[in-house]
Every structure is written in C-alpha cells, then in structure tokens.
Amino acid sequence: xxxxxxxxxxxxxxxxxxxxxxxxxxxxxxxxxxxxxxxxxxxxxxxxxxxxxxxxxxxxxxxxxxxxxxxxxxxxxxxxxxxxxxxxxxxxxxxxxxxxxxxxxxxxxxxxxxxxxxxxxxxxxxxxxxxxxxxxxxxxxxxxxxxxxxxxxxxxxxxxxxxxxxxxxxxxxxxxxxxxxxxxxxxxxxxxxxxxxxxxxxxxxxxxxxxxxxxxxxxxxxxxxxxxxxxxxxxxxxxxxxxxxxxxxxxxxxxxxxxxxxxxxxxxxxxxxxxxxxxxxxxxxxxxxxxxxxxxxxxxxxxxxxxxxxxxxxxxxxxxxxxxxxxxxxxxxxxxxxxxxxxxxxxxxxxxxxxxxxxxxxxxxxxxxxxxxxxxxxxxxxxxxxxxxxxxxxxxxxxxxxxxxxxxxxxxxxxxxxxxxxxxxxxxxxxxxxxxxxxxxxxxxxxxxxxxxxxxxxxxxxxxxxxxxxxxxx
Length: 474
Prior knowledge:
Low-confidence stretches: 1-24, 188-193, 388-441, 448-474
CATH topology of the largest domain: Jelly Rolls
Mean pLDDT: 79
Strand content: 25-35%
Helix content: 10-25%
Structural class: alpha+beta
CATH architecture of the largest domain: Sandwich
Number of domains: 2
C-alpha cells in the first residue's frame, strides 16, 4: 500500500466500516490489542510492514505477530485470549462479530474463548489442515513441522479437525509451563463488581486500575488511580502510523487501550476549587466497532503542524488534545472544545518518529496558543519518519529467527479426549476450493470445568511475573 493511499486513513475519527469495506449486513470488524510482550516480538501491519511489537498495539484482520526464540506474547479480543509460545508466527485473517480466523504458520498457541463467545466461528489454519473451535474453553494448538506433527489439546471445550487433520492429531491435554501460564491469565474479577464498560478489548483492565462512579451528566464514568497531578490523556505513550487506521495512539499504561480508542475524556468538576479530575466516559451506546485510532483533535496546519511564534527557525510542533463527550473534529473551529487548553505538544520529529511523547514535551508554548490555533479538520498529512531500519525492512523484512519446535515426549494420561464421531461437515472455504470435496471432520469434545493450573509452573525456568504486569488485564 502506497503512502498516498494510507494518508486518507489518517483522519483521527475513523469510520472503520467504510475504510475496511465491509458491506451492510456483514459483521462489523473487531479490534483487539497486544496485551503482553516478552522478548523479541514483531508486529506486522495490514500494509505488510514489520516493526517491534508494543503492548496496546491494535490487532485486527490483516495484522500479524511473530515471536522469536525465547519470546512470548499475548493478544486479546473482547471475548478471547491468544498466547504465542516462543518461535511462533501467526496472522489474523478475519476478526469480526461472526468469525475469528487465525493462520498459524509455525509454533504453538494457546487460545481461551470466554463463555460469551458462543455465536462466533473460530477457525485455526495450520500448514497441514484446519481446526474449528466450536465451544468456549481452553485449547493448545501446535502447528507442526518436519520434526513433529500438528497437535490439538482440548483442556475444555469442543474442537473439530479437517483438511488433512484427523483424530491422530488430537493429543492428551497435558499441562506444562506454557499452558499453565496462559491459562492462568484470565480475568478473576468478581461478577458482582465487574465494570459496567461494554465488551471491548481492554475494558477488563480498568477494574484493577481505577474506579467507576455515576455522574449526573455523563452516566457511568471511570477514574484512573495513581496518576500524577499534571497527567492528561494521550500524553504517556507514542504515535505509530498503522494501516488501515493511520496515526494511532499506543498508550503506555496497562489500562490505556480502551480509554484511548473508545469513548471520550472529560474534565469532571470536583466538590471544591482545584479538585477537578479526568474521567473516561464510554457512553451508553458504545460498541466494539466504534474503535478509533485516537479520539483527539490536532492543532495547526495539515502537513505542517503547529508553528511556534517567536522562535525563528524552530521546527514546527505537533499538538493534540482529547475530545470531550459529544465532540468530533467535524465540529469545526468555531466549536468550544472543552479540553483544548490541555493540549500536548512535541517536536514534529518526535511525533513522526514514533518516539515516547512524555520524554519530549514542549512546555514553553503558552496556553493561549492552544486556544487560538485552528483545529485540523482534514487528514493530518504528516508522513511517518523513514529510518534506516524501516527502509531496509521495506526492501526485505528482516526475518525473526524461528527455531523448530522440538518434539515433545507425550506424558501418559488417564484418558485421551474421546473421538465422538466421524461425520461430514460443511466444506472449509479455502480447502474446499482446492479439493472440490466435502471434508471429513474428526471431532474432539472435552466439556468439563477448567482444571486447576498444574504445579509445573513453579518448576518452570521461565519468569512470567513480568508478563502479568505488562498484560494489565483484558
């Protein structure tokens, strides 16, 4: 995809329906997030470009992830979790309200489907066939290679295999350090105290990092805990230009995904002067397809940024402020944007280079400059900086060393998952096209309560404490 084509996607308040090209009657696209990264993990945008993966980067149809030797990662959707073991590469082929389709070209994944994930088709495409997960539960899937065959472990749930895979590829559910880790990462929030936020990626992380209160104007409002007195939204993180959305905010906070891409931030008056505080307002009708790359408005001139009067020869800045409830950038320059005076500004090179914002704040711009500057009402038109590494990657993406997954010695189990039936099933679209035949499916059903994590975690040489801290919940 050319830069000119991507430029149209950089309008911050993006309508994913029109950009993604899905038609009326089709399921709306779903956006998840990277929730944990440990070691060298790379992120692939829908334009095919690779970069170092960051926690809170968005994941949607067309994006990919690959973990190098010794690296691990986790991504989350509104009702699912997917963990990548070391030496794993995957790509999201489809992600919407009807279907989650993932291609795992190498390595091993763990996938958890929440109880609410009942209507969606979940398909895992492996080099030698396909796996369909047809019930909520926990599944551990190995892609297989020349040294070991593909395998599917069903800890709880129901799986169907086809397209070259059969009951011989169903392995006994045998916990190890990797499965213990990803199965222990669930949301343990009591149902009675769970947040009132809608089912969007990152919503569950809010419960442990703030509190919900009712407001007479905005309804339910979430207030973050343990923030600095001068904290403001969209200030601790970095900007990345990601297809198909354009300029996208990647927040540093473990809870920062949902409040950065959904709803609005409001400055809520306190009970006495000087006690105003920031609150996130999701709104009453928020849905998963309301994703925005960042609910902000930029100041200055498109393609240039914000000039800095009085400093002759000083490069321009890029400045933005969070939109308040009910505001959009289409309101024009005559609108009284409530959060304009809390704008954040950095040198243009910092913005375009995707560098940390908090380390490069411009603090000598008077507040009046933010109040007087025009709001940019069209595409920002500032291209991302092209570093040497990026230029090299565009010519030929650097491959992450992906070691072959060694064959695992199976541990005897009291009982392997029962093969309930061999039957004909609806043809899988891509494989059916190649063969022109209906596929025979092997079906494994293990519908039982989730087993407690095995004690092998305490014996594991892996230190996963940092992953839990980085994950910050769903």
